[in-house]
Amino acid sequence: MDGKKVEIECRNCHERMTIDFSTDSFSSQIQIFNGRKQQKRTYIKECPHCHTINSVTSDKKEEWGSRKGPNFKLFMFSGLFGCLGFIVIGLLFLYFAFQGFGFVVDWLFN
User: Fold this and answer.
1) Rounded to 10 degrees, what is the CA torsion of 4, 45, 55, 23?
2) Burial letters for 71-103: b for 16+ Cβ neighbours within 10 Å, e otherwise?
3) DSSP designation for 28
4) Residue 50 neighbours by CB under 8 Å, 6+ apart
5) CA-to-CA distance for 13 and 16, rounded, in angstroms?
6) What is the per-residue pLDDT across 44-56, written as a single tens digit (0 to 9) for each?
7) Rg of the chain in Å (alpha carbons)
8) Rounded to whole angstroms, how far apart are CA atoms 105 and 101?
9) Is the pLDDT of residue 80 over 90?
10) pTM exceeds 0.85, yes or no
11) DSSP 3-state of 65
């Protein structure tokens, strides 16, 4: 299934250009309201004449074609593992810091 092609005017030079939802770059916005997921995509393309970045926003999945967006669960898991790694490294740092503090106190008082 092919994505939609939108013809727009460039914001800067007002030349006609086409943004193809099947091949051009996009960013995805996900909002969750009352348990329902709403998703919007903003397709971005550079004008071939003046190199200005132009964009089109769409919230209709039928227009997007068969391209998959980023996986939200993957971002959640990567954030979770990042937090756990930070906590483990912090605990190791505190352990070795107190080991060194104990060594200094023993050396001072003995």
Assistant:
1) 30
2) eeeeeeeeeeeeeeeeeeeeeeeeeeeeeeeee
3) E
4) 10, 12, 13, 15
5) 9
6) 999 988 989 999 9
7) 26
8) 6
9) no
10) no
11) coil
